């Protein structure tokens, strides 16, 4: 519709407000209670404009065809100014001390010429609440605009805040009014970000000194890939805020990306290369880049010449950029001459890569996360997004609050289980039985899309045959749940118009993880909920910031970039031509196979980039044995990780805040990473380290810059052909596949056909097989391991931030009934013994775990969870069975 603002004609979409029209016309009205991320409230009245001689709040008045809006209407301006003066009359004048770029209130006062003389808040004196490390409240600056309360409810979904008191004394309170720290706040920072007056602030922004510069980049913690703005002062991060127009996070973030940046200036950062001069027993000492590079180059070359290139194993980093991963696999193949290169996706979503490829064609989720907006039913299986992918967890909460149905399948009563329509508390390792049981109900009760199955799917006969063995009673018995619960889950998914599946490591990190993915994918195929218009498909919640990209770039023993098979001679020839060297043909070793080969003496050197294998890989006793058996261990890290500690040479690397490149997030979006800080000391990006090392070995990797590396990858990889730094800088993030410069990336895949050999989605008939580790009389409990909100994987970064105040140590979750039986109280120490070793934990009694099951994370080196974990790995993919370890418990 068309209307005018100050005589300027503007066109706005239906549903737009007068404020939208004002903005479209380039005019300005101040706002205080308005935030584009929230439902408008229209309470502060500083946005009044003149419409037909009447003063109307721009934020809540709908724009109408032919409307004539005036922002300079004298009566409206006067009323707005009066509203503002009344509002500030309750505030102390120091409200004006907040820098204008951090206070909409100060900007509104400047707009109307309201000065300190109008402020008179001497009476309130309500004080500050600085109990929380990140959220700081100055009660006297609160203007009761309700934005923080709405942010916590409408965006974050935590409902931690409310307004309390009357009249001028109305104030925000957290939880039941005690200290912020004891409220249910999850430190997403949303309230701080929206507060217009400086009443809510954060440490780096309480400091009035100006910000030197800001950089827009992608979060380097989890695979959501939030777009963040980094505010830098004196080459230190002052604050990180979410970008409002960001495609994935839409102005939101979580405690890690938003606040956990202090690790960048930790005194533990590695600032020089380290080397052991007198063998393994001698200490790691600082050295020059020259010496470190020469030693590594010489020893790698010697091992290659003596034992062959396959005596070297390289682990590339899911934390590093695409460009660095591209170089790492090129280094392994073209300089060392081996396909022994792998990455951390082996430990998490390798079964997704194999399973999704077999079912649909590509090794990634089928849809863009934006498609969730259209869903009416979400089935979440083995994923805990409110802790592991918090921005998506928050989005899912909002979808459910707005009416989408929710099915949660998880052995633990996760946060989202509390709001689920159906919660299936299935036993760890029972996924295949559960999904087969649901599939059987979908078919038996007529929810399957027969047309879709006839024209676009294969394998129905075999599946129907197999499902004869999975009546819902049987499936429910295996899962340890009521048959009705499974039937209800199937009916909710079956009756939905646009059901979505969201899953995580609870499906993949099992002895039969690929079967889990395939049988889960079956549900979407049966329902015709993938590859069809408006569908929501199957989203795999990829973990690390760039675990998708590390695999996309070919840091895999059997694939070149873009999942092009190493065994395909044409593909190898294409790379060989471009690289000017031959590409080794035999698929290399996977991570866990490298350890076995090292113990057997076949692998003599391990080159590890940004992965703390000695802490995070399963059965870490075995990992240590493998590293000890090697002649050379090299680590690139930000810190002296457990692995770096065991290395012969350590290269100081830089973090995502200090480097240039791209990451691929969990929904296949390629996004730019830009340096905000200069690196500490002599630390260098992994990109530069690999270039220097190749050069020292007398080889050249080409692609002198990250932009060049992505360009080279695009030349050789059809699914990345249309993606370049220049285009990302110009157009913003792009989904792969993106096959040409002039094509948009494909968010929703397979609309025409599936990328399988026959173009059909492949149903899989897979029987349930029990987990690799079984509890018995000696080891009666099942230990599940996974994520906690505030810490991240090895904890190397999150432990070096004030997140430690939010969670200072690891705990073991135990059901209160088990606690009572074993006479273990909250906070007591227990020894947990698995078939490998024993580790002592402090107990947290909670009914989020089922009786007989335990849960913990792996973020703290002093409680080495992975010394305990199962040594079973899936045969197809080599993915470890992190989710099931049989253990016993003993109070100490
Ligand atoms: N805060 C935080 N966020 C993170 C990380 C972190 O360390 N901390 N790590 C990142 C990484 S690397 C990854 S891969 C992702 C992981 O993200 P998720 O996969 O969501 O995380 P997990 O907690 O490992 O596992 C998810 C759930 O699987 C459940 N589960 C275990 N066994 C089974 C089973 O047999 N069946 C079913 N249905 N469920 C089961 C667990 O109870 C758990 O709630 O998170 C990423 N984000
Ligand atoms: N028990 C149990 N264990 C698990 C899991 C589980 O569910 N249960 N999950 C597994 C999963 S899914 C994963 S992904 C792994 C994660 O395990 P890791 O990959 O080992 O853990 P991270 O802490 O993500 O990062 C590894 C190292 O990279 C460093 N680093 C960060 N950024 C950079 C960079 O840009 N360059 C370089 N060179 N180094 C960098 C960090 O300091 C850290 O030491 O853990 C696995 N381990
Ligand atoms: S930081 Fe987030 S969770 Fe905490 S009170 Fe503010 S909006 Fe709510
Ligand atoms: S949700 Fe993930 S990507 Fe977003 S801020 Fe948090 S850790 Fe970073
Ligand atoms: S911003 Fe419009 S009434 Fe507050
Ligand atoms: Mo992961």
Automatic annotation (TrEMBL):
GO MF entries: formate dehydrogenase (NAD+) activity
CDD domains: fer2 (cd00207), MopB_CT_Fdh-Nap-like (cd00508), MopB_Formate-Dh-H (cd02753)
Entry cofactors: [2Fe-2S] cluster
Limits of the 4Fe-4S ferredoxin-type domain: 133-164, 177-205
Keyword Iron-sulfur: yes
Domain called 4Fe-4S Mo/W bis-MGD-type: residue spans: 212-268
Enzyme kind, highest EC tier: oxidoreductase
Keyword tags: 2Fe-2S, 4Fe-4S, Iron, Iron-sulfur, Metal-binding, Oxidoreductase, Quinone, Repeat, Ubiquinone
EC number: 1.17.1.9
Domain 2Fe-2S ferredoxin-type: 1-75
Protein origin, superkingdom: Bacteria
InterPro entries per record: 2Fe-2S_ferredoxin-like_sf, 2Fe-2S_ferredoxin-type, 4Fe4S_Fe-S-bd, 4Fe4S_Fe_S_CS, Asp_de-COase-like_dom_sf, Formate_Dh-H_N, Formate_DH_asu, MoPterin_dinucl-bd_dom
Transmembrane segments: none
Pfam short name (any one): Fer4_Nqo3
Purpose of the protein: NDH-1 shuttles electrons from NADH, via FMN and iron-sulfur (Fe-S) centers, to quinones in the respiratory chain. The immediate electron acceptor for the enzyme in this species is believed to be ubiquinone. Couples the redox reaction to proton translocation (for every two electrons transferred, four hydrogen ions are translocated across the cytoplasmic membrane), and thus conserves the redox energy in a proton gradient.
Stated family: In the C-terminal section; belongs to the prokaryotic molybdopterin-containing oxidoreductase family.
Record protein name field: Formate dehydrogenase major subunit
Organism this protein belongs to: Micromonospora purpureochromogenes
Lineage: Bacteria, Bacillati, Actinomycetota, Actinomycetes, Micromonosporales
